[in-house]
User: Fold Lipoprotein from Streptomyces durmitorensis.
Amino acid sequence: MNLTCPHRRLLRRAAVLTATAAVVLAGCGSVDGLGAGEPAPSVSVQPRPEPLWPAWSSTSSKAPGADAATHQPPPEPLEGLPKLGKGGLGKEDFRDVLRADPRMKPLADRGEIDRPGRAGLRPPLLADLTGDGRPELLVAADTESGRSVLTVYKEHDGRVFPVLFTSGKRMSIERLGPDLLVRSPCADGGDQAVRFHWDGVRMSTVSDIKNYKKTPGADGSPSPQSTTEPSGGTDGQR
Assistant:
């Protein structure tokens, strides 16, 4: 009996099946993958928080999601300021702006500070938060009680409008793309992150998220409880 012929036939069948499988796999790859000469799709880079006053900022880089903001009457221009020239807020003495704002006037003549732990005014900053090519004025102050205050002013047609006023305990402020991210610690050991976005009228709240720190369990291991609790939005005038 010749045993070699069936063996050769099996080998030929295996070779045919292998070739067929290779063709099928090649066909699947051409459907879902990139063909020859096709460019790879571009990758969208998401903005990351950029600290505006780094000395006051934590190392966290979480970005909260978005919640609906409430609507309030539009801000009124500050009275007592002369009409701004072509230089806009960049040429204006920031202390004059603070003196014209009733909420910031008591802090207008305080000295400047360059690190946390002192009472005074942080160095003023200019940043385009509205996308119109003209920078807004950002002023933050720290008080003896440990609370911080942040104000943002926008120039329109030579007039100055307060478009954000918010306060909190030992605030750190970051820029997240065109938005502001304000963080502050909570009494229960967690921290709160509030995100503000220009809505065409003011810097309004798009998210307000509270993060709870994990507490150790009975055996010393971290507790598995949830650490994030989103809350409702505000108008940014806290």
Summary: The longest helix spans residues 4-32.
